[in-house]
Design a protein that fits this description.
single chain, mainly alpha, 3 helices, 85% helix
Length: 78
Amino acid sequence: MSELFDQFVVEAQELLETAGGALLALERDPADRASVDELFRAFHTLKGASGLFDMAPFTRLVHAGRTRCRCCATAGAA
């Protein structure tokens, strides 16, 4: 494995833990805008970083998650 990919794995694990925490917070309080934002940022960063590698299925998955977060944030702002 390359050093860049190794770093991606470490950061991805941290971002997925952050996303998991945000999802748990949203389960308790679906209107928690800070958790929606935190989840969006985690997915956004994962999407960009995964694009550096041949991980199209994962990139599409986190892109869909990011898009869903944006829809939730927009709906909550209305």
